[in-house]
Design brief:
The chain is an alpha+beta fold and 388 residues long. The chain is built from ten helices and 13 strands. It has one domain.
């Protein structure tokens, strides 16, 4: 097992900031900036999951989680697929069920937190679906009228009143996701507020605005545009369940938990880990960018304001350190959606290389995985640092 990558300079400020937004927008416009050919929200999502930005995000998260537990280690991985599965069910249309058919989400986030060791170790996994939307005002969601895609997506997420069938494509002949139907509603309620949020992406930077360009939003009602909002960085921290200072969104994935947690775990298992060795030909053709299917940052640990000289001397003593730290001692397949326990199963053999053109009968959804580990017991959330 390799040592974690230690760093002493904590990234400052907000992780999902206007400088990042401006850089991505310039890149998008340079590639043609045509929303009909390159969906703007997916361009932003893809840019967020590039390797350099994931490494920076891992350090940003690690430094803030270290305020709760100095021993914490953080690892990020991105499994990118440039399509999404389709959801089919009924929504509450004024007391009468009506059919809804639309994409399930634009991104699934899964956060696994392992605290302690031995018989007292605890493991939790929490997930959240994001539906990305480019908005003139990040505090206001498009109401969604008529047969627009936004109307269908809002009906699904806010008014779902049935179990879901999920297919792996948009064709009427598309195969269903394994496992039959999925019951993702909370008892006696409609919608998926406990599982999803809208990721609002700013359409432009307005003069004098102080609002962040990326914001998670949940409207106060189906007919409302505004509602409760939180930052993307704070949401990722909250999914760790390590501090009550951060918003705790989403739902746990637990094969031995409540019926809802079992269903969510089953869905996430069936959605994930199908594309580790496949090329991204479609995205390259559309954008001119050759990108890897899987990005894994490796493990990071924040060591505080140590002298940089100490780390430099250590690198001189071991010229192979930089290479070793990039090795993958624990494949994504093991930690991302492993059974809720401290022991991991043996790795499955890799699938043969394939392209997206071969994937018509399989699931397409990008997934961002976050692994948080500490040898300390789960921190007392009553003594939490302020949210950033």
């Amino acid at each position: 097992m390799t040592m974690p990558k230690q760093f002493s300079h904590a990234p400052q400020g907000k992780i999902y900031s206007w400088p990042l937004w401006k850089h991505i927008e310039r890149d998008w416009l340079a590639k043609g900036g045509n929303p009909f050919k390159m969906q703007r929200e997916r361009w932003h999502l893809r840019a967020h999951q590039q390797e350099a930005r994931l490494r920076y995000l891992a350090q940003w998260l690690c430094a803030r989680l270290a305020l709760v537990d100095p021993d914490v280690r953080v690892r990020l991985a991105s499994l990118w697929v440039d399509h999404t599965p389709q959801a089919h069910g009924d929504y509450d249309a004024g007391g009468v069920p009506a059919p809804v058919d639309c994409e399930l989400a634009d991104l699934l986030i899964v956060v696994r937190t392992e605290c302690g060791k031995g018989p007292t170790a605890t493991v939790s996994q929490r997930g959240l679906f994001l539906q990305a939307k480019v908005a003139a005002d990040v505090d206001q969601l498009d109401p969604g009228y008529g047969d627009s895609s936004t109307a269908s997506e809002r009906n699904l997420l806010e008014l779902l009143c049935s179990k879901l069938d999920i297919t792996v494509g948009t064709s009427s002949k598309s195969a269903k996701l394994p496992g039959g139907t999925y019951e993702l509603r909370q008892t006696g309620q409609v919608g998926l507020a406990h599982l999803a949020r809208y990721l609002q992406i700013a359409e432009s930077k307005k003069k004098g605005t102080r609002k962040p360009p990326y914001q998670l939003l949940w409207p106060s009602a189906r007919t409302a545009a505004g509602g409760s909002a939180s930052g993307m960085g704070a949401a990722l921290l909250g999914l760790s369940e390590m501090s009550s200072a951060w918003p705790v969104l989403g739902t746990r994935l637990d094969a031995s938990g409540s019926p809802l947690e079992q269903e969510f775990e089953r869905l996430a298992q069936n959605l994930g880990l199908r594309y580790l060795n496949r090329s991204l030909g479609r995205f390259k053709r559309m954008t001119g960018q050759a990108i890897p299917r899987l990005i894994d940052t490796g493990e990071y640990q924040y060591v505080g304001p140590l002298l940089p000289l100490k780390l430099w001397l250590r690198s001189l003593l071991n010229k192979g350190m930089a290479f070793l730290l990039r090795l993958n001692p624990l494949p994504l397949r093991l930690f991302a959606l492993a059974p809720a326990g401290p022991n991991f199963p043996p790795p499955a053999p890799p699938a043969p290389p394939r392209s997206e053109e071969d994937d018509a009968g399989e699931v397409h959804i990008p997934i961002l995985y976050l692994l948080i580990q500490t040898e300390q017991a789960r921190p007392d959330q009553s003594a939490s640092p302020p949210a950033k």
